[in-house]
Design a protein that fits this description.
378 residues; alpha+beta; TATA-Binding Protein; 2 domains; nine-stranded mixed sheet; disordered N terminus; BamC_C; signal; transmembrane
Amino acid sequence: MKRSALLTQAKRLSVLSFGASALFALAGCDTLNDWLAPDRVNYKAAETAPSLSVPSDLTDISQRYAAPPKVNALGGAAERAVTPAGNATLGVPSAQDPYGMHVEKDGDRRWLVVDGRSPDEIWGPLKEFWEENGFTLKTDAPQTGIMATDWAENRANIPNDWFRNSVGKLLDFAYSSGTRDMFRTQVDRAADGSTDISITHSAMEEVLTGQDKTSSRWEARPRNPQLEAAVLGKLMQKFGLTEDQSKKLIADARPAGAKVAMDPGAGGSTIDLAEPFDRAWRRVGLALDRTNFTVDNRDRDKGIYYVHYSDSMAELKKDGLFGKFFSSNTPKPTRQFLVNVKPKADWVTQIGVVDVNGQPDTSTDAQRIVSLLHAQLN
């Protein structure tokens, strides 16, 4: 059970005095109710709608499948189809996928494939999923297929002790669990008309330092593949499956790996992936999410991911008591890199870093990105 360094200071009477004066200073602020609202984020305890029951007379999946449903006009959400098991699913059921969706995996990485649906049809329900589970979206970009939550504090880690009941009620955000989590969602259109959805978890933890434990630093926590899979399961339930059905699809995830080799002819600055462009494009995006490089934009037609180095610790320094009052929201400029994904042969795709003119980037940072991608893709 960890507390932030501010907790030690907050126990002193000086912090109580500052907290009272801060409340008066914020009395005219429109966001005052937000600061004093009850715990806003507790994603582990969040619940989705009740699982759909399966009628006893519809459990035989050998019967005729329902016809694909029509799509609402003006790009609206698609009408759901009825599966042989009786579910009203967002996907389009088929003999290969009776639930209208399946899960693929590459090592401990998994992603959801929703059959017969475009990213436009899935974007609305996907956005609802994060909002219904208590997350604020920091990135909502359907044109690039990137959706990311803001850093969320898991308030379930905060003990309900006397200090929380006193100071916490006065300034709830002064009492921190010292952990933050965020999720990035990548949505891609596949060549067969389906949509791939991958979810990546990132986490940070505030660790007390020094002999008197009055200072702290933020450290990255390992990504949690089990948590990522659990979130995919919750998403499948949002799309119409029961909990048991979603667990089965995760357990039966289809392998989707391929060999990766450094290209010796390019001085080790590119990667050859033994997959066609469509699959390689998705895997590279997923691999970038596993590194400290954030995808700002994507151009599938040009095969370019626009990325920059993401300093998660710098973002979280603004989460403290004083940071919430005085920090600036203006990000520091960082260099942008262009990760190029292009076909090399029928079943070979080449990955490298290029400059704005499309020429190979031979800088040390570019080679580091290639090495990181090589490690993630293997």
